[in-house]
Amino acid sequence: MTREEVLDDLRRKFKDDIIEVFDKSPKRVYVEIKPDSIVQVASYIFKDLKARFNTASGVDLRYHMEILYHFLIEDINLLISLRVKLQKQKLEIDSISPIFEGSSWIEREIHEILGINFKGHKDLRKLLLPDDWPEGVYPLRRDYKEWDKNVIRDRGV
Amino acid sequence: MSIKLKALLKSPWVFHLSTGSCNNCDIEILDCLTPRFDIERFGMLLVGSIKHADVLLITGSGNRKSMERAKRLYEQIPKPCLVVAVGECALSRGMFVHSYNCPVPIDKVIPVDVYIPGCPPKPEAIIAGVVKLIEKVRKSTEKK
Amino acid sequence: MIYIFYFLFFGFLLTAIIGLLASWIDRKVTAKVQYRVGPPLLQPLIDIVKLLGKETLIPAGSSKITFLMSPVIGLVSVILVSTLLWINNIYPAKSFLGDLIVVLYLLVIPSISIIMGGFASRNPLASLGASREMKLILSYELPFILAVLVTVIKSGFTFRLGEILTFQAQNGAFVRSWSGALALIVAIICMQAKLALVPFDIPEAETEISGGVLIEYSGSGLAIYRLMKNMLMFTVPFFLIIVFIGGLRLDGIHLLYGVLKYIGLVALMTVIRNTNPRVRIDQAVKFFWGPVTIIAIIAVILALLGR
Description:
The structure holds three protein chains of three kinds. Helix content of chain B is 39%, strand content 15%.
């Protein structure tokens, strides 16, 4: 299937879920979808189009938060990024780890760093932060404040 | 100089510890062991266990998690020992000064003897730093 | 009284000096093969002096007496073996009945002391290294004993080292016959495993289990272990020279031949060490119980037939 066929296929199947398709370059496409339909679209791209799940990124923008899921179709060299916008008052989304196991760790990391709750994830503990990190403090949010009293923030020169 | 210290300077065994680095400094340290900058002619060997080591080479900006382990390793190295910090991140956390995961520089946790700046330092710079360390130890024992 | 002199001078001092020299030759030749400059001449001695000056850390919860006594037991047994071999080499008439068996038994004790030291330190990696050393002993002892059995058969079923030496002085070294050459090859392979050199340095695999058996030793314990290993590097080739190639005769031109025999064995060990990767423990056990034992049995049968 070529690139145009893939995009037309997606547009046809998920007509009311897709909000916008942005062709960035011949190799990359950004597809924005509604948060409720992430499981369907992700399982379609993973299973039927036989794409590979690369990684997921979480961004904290000024008025909302976003998660991007990157899928790579290797035969036609196309990277599809599914963009999901979340409001800051209600930071939850369905987890896609029941579909494929490879996404469980990245969702743990997004949860501990940005504070987004993944419903249906089996095991949402800390992945990288130390054990004595206080609860409810998410480091990469825009309103993160220094909570530790014993830090040294100058270089000493 | 006492015979203990003379023997220590003529055959320092090196243990390499990375506390969360980007691995560039580790690759440059590995370059020092290759035949081009051979350090076995100074008697240095790379050992696998901390209890056999004399010199502790630290790279990487100190994470919260890894500084606990580094402190435990420093307590296990048999004294007298020397500590060398290699690379900008080990000196003062480099560009990670304001990061949430690097609270203090390494030399507030472990006493460091020699700092080798560079990002990453060339193998010639590492060897020059080690030579300066040996000179410093010689001078400080001669003054006594 | 004379035996104490032999013990201290020949057993300990001369063996230590030649062993440290052999270790230096090994490191220098390895460095030259890898196209670099190696360590200076006194490097192995400086290593041991430096280790004696560092503090000794004993892990909590380990059995202290076993931990500290194991290196000493290994060192004492190597000194005893070396004393016996030197006495028999200089005065072949002074050997007693069965001293070949005594030497074979005493040569197992350094490996056992490494196992004891590994299990006495309370560390899972050390136990792993010690259990691998146990499997290695089980595999290489059989071909080694079969190879030594060849010389016993060929010298008329005698168990005295002195009589083996005098037999070889009269009838030519054992290595000139078919069975002797095969047995020497088997013994060299087993020597590589006994000294824990690559390809069989499984118990002290440095990068794999970070020091293996010796992971908890520091300071004087490690110094004694290194001295024991360096002295083994003289003792075991010396044993092979006495039993297979005719001993180290100390008069005139034969001294030069003896030195060449020893350096030849050390060079062979170094060359094998530099050209082979490390094997896994199950491959090593299959190798020793398979081809090597078969060659040893063929050598024994050839010796019984008189070749």
